[in-house]
């Protein structure tokens, strides 16, 4: 019984890590430009479809597919950001919300057009299949891989943000955009690069998600809610906050659906609304 | 001095609320389906109901500036409320509408205390969260709501002696009349000093308390009114179709109505109605298409409107015609 509980907690944590990879980019870009980008998961979906195509073309090389997903999502996002999104930074939040929802609609239709509306299956390489026994617990190999990937990304982001010059620039721009600009930082370029990185991570998340939650044209919408919950609970621009919020959401979602399936997603929505009412800037948000 | 300002404001408001020939023509045109398109009357009543819902959202979103992505909770609440009262013995439509509207207004007033606590992203998330929460709640309370099968056994009595007919004559007349009455109410509301105060909140939340206006009280009141109107729209849907399905509460409905508003133009009552008309007719015409492709065009349209017509189609039209704006 206890080991079963541990496995459920682990599965929840792994799902949370997936959500972390999907959402951390949005948290940073939202903190940076206050641009409410609801199409973030559409870039995740793009990554997923790129990964599926690369897997088919390259004979099932999963790691190559992950890299391709990251690169493709990053490139396409920076293109969209430079041509379309940047016009909306000064527009009201309603316009941003609607424009990016429009992007999600178009992306979903394009995905249905090119790939059909069905689920896209992938075949994992052997070393990610089956399960691994650790401390007497049988844990899914893929979920373990997911946790490792997410922890590596977390470490890279924290080190990159805290200990590099570019990270310092991002932090400065998040804290106070005007002053940063006044000090001669090129906030525009910083934002473009951050946006590309964040969307790239979303693309990676979309590729990683195929095995866990599947991939179909509704991905951009379906996981948007989860991602927004992570971002609003974690607080804008806070990587640690996103990590904690994603882990919390993943565990409570999986555990809730396992132990009390009849109330479905009720629990996570309730937790989100209550937390936001008490702390409108999220659990770890500063502003 | 104050007297002069007061009369100025009153003349301005009176001038704003004068009926223009366009408006009269519009409402006469609303009667045309009875004569020219009798086979489309069911669609016409759906449009009138949706327009009423859009109108209610316009009050909070367009006039008071509260971005909401969860207003379907009131629409669905009204739909279920009317369905349940009729199922358990009271199928009189007019009182059913009123009761649903009042109950939802009370509920909306309670919820408005939560809504006015938060702003920006948190506001969007809280409204969306509450909407999703209501949807899940109705789904899990299937002993009351019928769950995914929908609520069965709704029996609406004749309205003022007119039976609901198969062709939808009564349904459209009823929906149109309710829409018109609610529209008159909204028109009076937004052209009052209360409506002006709401626009003040929308334009600058911080300045309103500085000039002595308690903006939170205004927001709570308008939110309650809007909730009541959304519920009336939902109740109308129940009464004209005699079923209630779970999708009255869906996120899709909340999102669609905001899309309609943006297409038509926010902060204009006719924008809400026009948006609903365009959206519903387009969906009806394109319904053979896979819904995902139909959303492709909605997506494109949304992006174009946001980029090039920030005041919506109606805003663009008034600029074209060259009528003085506001």
Key traits:
heterodimer; A: 287 residues; mainly alpha; two-stranded antiparallel ribbon; 11 helices; 2 strands; B: 326 residues; ABC transporter involved in vitamin B12 uptake, BtuC; 16 helices; globular
How much beta of chain A, percentage-wise?
under 5%
- Report on the biggest sheet of chain B: none
The percent of residues in helical segments of chain A reads over 70%
Q: Give the percentage of residues in beta strands of chain B.
A: under 5%
CATH architecture call of chain B:
Orthogonal Bundle
Most strands sheet of chain A: 2 strands, antiparallel
Strand/helix succession of chain A: HHHHEEHHHHHHH
Q: What can be said about this structure in brief?
A:
Chain A is mainly α. Chain A is 74% helix and 3% strand. In chain A, α1 (2-33) packs parallel to α5 (141-163).
Write the layout of secondary structure elements.
The complex is a heterodimer of chains A (287) and B (326).
Chain A: H1 2-33, H2 40-57, H3 62-83, H4 93-115, E1 131-134, E2 137-140, H5 141-163, H6 165-175, H7 177-182, H8 187-213, H9 219-234, H10 239-259, H11 266-278
Antiparallel strand pairs in A: 1-2
Helix pairs in contact in A: 1-5, 1-6, 1-8, 1-9, 1-10, 2-3, 2-4, 2-8, 2-9, 3-8, 5-6, 6-8, 9-10
Chain B: H1 2-16, H2 21-29, H3 32-36, H4 41-63, H5 72-87, H6 93-115, H7 120-140, H8 142-145, H9 169-190, H10 193-203, H11 207-210, H12 215-241, H13 251-264, H14 269-285, H15 291-308, H16 312-321
Helix pairs in contact in B: 4-9, 4-12, 4-13, 4-14, 5-6, 5-12, 6-12, 9-12, 10-12, 13-14, 13-16, 14-16
Describe this structure in words.
Chain A has one domain. In chain A, 74% of the residues lie in helices and 3% in strands. Chain A contains eleven helices and two strands. In chain A, strands 1-2 form a two-stranded antiparallel ribbon. In chain A, strand 1 and strand 2 form a beta hairpin. The longest helix of chain A has 32 residues. Chain A is globular. The relative contact order of chain A is 0.20. Chain B has one domain: ABC transporter involved in vitamin B12 uptake, BtuC (Orthogonal Bundle), CATH 1.10.3470. The radius of gyration of chain B is 20 Å and the shape is globular. At the A-B interface, helix 4, helix 9 and helix 11 of A face helix 7, helix 13 and helix 15 of B.
